[in-house]
Structures are given as C-alpha cells and as structure tokens.
Amino acid sequence: MVFFERLLNYSRLFDFDQLFKIEFEQLFKKADEMANIAKYDREDVIHKAMLLFWEKGFNGASTRDLQQALDMRPGSIYAAFGSKEKLYSETLECYSREMATVLEQRIAEAGSPLAGLEAFFRNVVIERRDTNPSEICMLVKTLSEARNDQPELMKLSRELLKRTENRFAEILQQAIKQGEIAEHSDPYILAKHLQVQMIGLRIYMKTSLNTVAVGELIEAVFNNIKAR
Q1: Is 209 helix (H, G, I), strand (E, B) or coil?
Q2: Residues 114, 207: contact at Cβ < 8 Å?
Q3: Residue 13: C-alpha distances to residues 20, 25, 78, 120, 203 (Å)
Q4: How far is residue 88 from each of residues 74, 133, 157, 212, measured CA to CA in Å?
Q5: What is the per-residue pLDDT across 175-203, written as a single tens digit (0 to 9) for each?
Q6: Is 3 among the domain residues?
Q7: CATH number of the structural domain spanning residue 214
Q8: Which residue range(s) make up the domain with 77?
Q9: Are the C-beta atoms of residues 171 and 113 closer than 8 Å to each other?
C-alpha cells in the first residue's frame, strides 16, 4: 500500500503527456533529418552516375566503374536502385532536368525568348564542351548505343527529347507573341527544326572542335528563324 502511494506521488511530479510529446517530436525531427540526408545523398549519387554514364554509356560503364564513381559497394547500389538499368533511367531524368534548368536560366537572363534560346544553344554546344563528359547529348547517345533488349531506356530517351522539343515550341510561341518571329510561323515545326540543329551542332562540334565555325552556325540558325 505504501509503495502505491509513493508511486502516485512520484507520478504527480512529472507530466508524462508532455514527456511523451517531447519524445515523439524528437523522433519525428530525427526521421525528417534522416530523410533529407537520404534524399541529398541519393541525388548526389544519381548526379555522379549521370556523369559516368554520359561519358561511357550504359554498356561501357562497368560495375567497377560505378563502384569507384559513386564510392558505393555493388550491393548497396543495387539495394538503392534495383538494377543498373533503373539507375540509368534516373540519370536520364537527372540529365533532362539539368538541361531544362540551364534553358530556363538563359531565358530569364536574356529577357527575350529567342535570345534565351540562342544563349542556351551557345552554352550547351560551345561553353560547356570542355567541362561536360561528352559533347553528344546523353539522350541521343543512349538512342544510338542502346540494344534492342533495352527498350525502356530507348523509350524514356525519346520521351525526354520530346519534352525538350515541346518546351522549345512553348518558348517559340512566346517569341511569336512578342513579335520576334513572324506571326505565320509554326512554333512546333520550328521546335523540331531546333531539335535537329542542336543534335547536329553538338556532333559537328565533336568532329570539328571549331568553336568559331559552330558559333557562326548557331547565329545563322536563329537569323534564319527571324527571317521567316
């Protein structure tokens, strides 16, 4: 009886509801911190893998290459991503997002849709050629190197290229509204034209290494659009 009276008295000294609340808040805070760390690490790993795959291609990048580039054991890589193909798919998405970010930055800086597009072309084809793992677009490279037993990679690459083309069309539509391009111009045809030019210019840069000539070609592409 004395024991229970003492326990009751002790319980009055503590607010157990408050203690539990504090404990749960700390647990949830810790869980959020771990989730943020995991997300950051995953994005960093995907970016590193993107650089490796962009340079060597899906089939050219070995398990050892991945292990060294990501600083992860093969078991950890496959536990995190499921397979090499799934990791590669995420790197394609990463590549597409990074190119889209560059495009939007150039549009914002130029203050003009058409000038922003031209600045984007110069940045991707000329200015980044020494720092990028490859002069060739990673999506185009994937389509040229993927085997018939890798249809998902080919499908995703086509979808991401189409996404870029559609964004080109939206920007060109804005250029038409602002009077930079003739009203009768078809932004979707022009977007396809720009997509083809971008692919060709990047390949020409790789083969010629002539930045002056490529710069003149980019200027001609956009002068031709303005003259339509």
Answers
A1: coil
A2: no
A3: 15, 22, 52, 67, 76
A4: 14, 16, 11, 34
A5: 999 999 999 999 999 999 999 999 999 99
A6: no
A7: 1.10.357.10
A8: 14-227
A9: yes
